Amino acid sequence: MNLWDTPATPLSRQTWPCNMHKVVVHDFNISSELDDPDIYAADPLWDWQQTEMGKWVMQHSKDTYWIRQVDPLKYNMQYKVVASFEEQDFIFFSLKWGAK
Q1: Distance separating alpha carbons of residues 97 and 54, to the nearest angstrom
Q2: Whose CB among 30, 33, 54, 92 lies 3.0–4.6 Å from 49's, allowing a Cys bridge?
Q3: pLDDT in tens, 44-63
Q4: Distance between CA atoms of residues 48 and 38, nearest Å
Q5: pLDDT tens, position by position, for the chain (100 residues)?
Q6: How far is 64 from 81, CA to CA, in rounded Å?
Q7: Contact, 25 vs 93, CB < 8 A?
């Protein structure tokens, strides 16, 4: 049986939540003079994941990713970790750590 043989099922609230909140949960800067700043960003990302906040975010978020932007004022690469939370997790995160 392949994907095309399976019957279509309606989306429920549990599989497709409507009240998702995207939050920048962590940000940091890396020098843009490095050859590959993504490799150097691994250490701060790992250190953050080992904190209380990082562990909670990785466990409770539905989707977590990082983005890289050029900061022209500081000549750095700015990294942001973005997480998607359901309503109750977003409220808990905002109350405990504050949404950025």
Answers
A1: 11
A2: 54
A3: 999 999 999 999 999 999 99
A4: 15
A5: 333 444 444 444 445 556 789 999 999 999 888 888 889 999 999 999 999 999 999 999 999 999 999 988 888 999 999 999 999 999 999 999 986 6
A6: 7
A7: yes
With 0-12 CB in 10 A as exposed, 13-18 as middle and 19+ as buried, what is 37? middle
* Whether the Cβ atoms of residue 83 and residue 70 lie closer than 8 Å to each other: no
The type of residue at 7 is: P
H or E segment and range at residue 64? strand 63-71
